[in-house]
Write a structure and sequence with these properties.
This protein is mainly beta. Helices cover about 10% and strands about 35% of the residues. The protein has helices at about 15-20, 70-80, 90-95, 110; strands at about 25, 25-30, 35-40, 45-50, 55-60, 80-85, 115-120, 125, 130-145, 150-160, 165, 170, 180, 185-190.
Amino acid sequence: MFYRPADGHGLPHNPFNAIVTPRPIGWISTRGADGSENLAPYSFFNAVAYVPPQVMFASTSAKEDRGDTKDSVANIRETGVFCVNVVEYAMRDAMNQTSGPWPKDTDEFALAGIGRVACETIACSRVADAPASLECRVTQIVRLEGASNFAVFGEVVGVHMRDDCIRDGEFDVLAFNPLTRMGYRDYAVIRETFGLKRPGE
């Protein structure tokens, strides 16, 4: 099968998200200039550079109470900071609860019963029990083609790792089983890893 996205795919559901999988989930916590807090998952998320460490996530829709975007990007425009929290399998239901199109004054930490603690280097909360959290300062917000599509890039200025996830000096994903996003309404969990040496190693 071949299709041009501009012409449509002819299938019951868009296959694009199912093709680009699995995708890590960035559980983005932000604080607005008014002190309100937001927590929302984004599956267009990844690390993009080592030195300095940098990450990105993309927001692809808008809410009526936020103009051309959603709460996360709106808050980041105001404050210039955000925190990426890693989602473990055990937190799947709480993460899903925070994905709703809630009004901007909704505190998703409270809504989903998620513990929070203050970040160390930025004025923002993070998920207290997350396996890892990355405190970030925005480097740029890029408007992408299409309505309400924005890519947010940030430099990681603080890293939290849960102590039980560090084994033999390494951050061990099998200690918490990362949740990943597939297509449609599907998710996957990482329960097995294997290693490969690069040529010449």
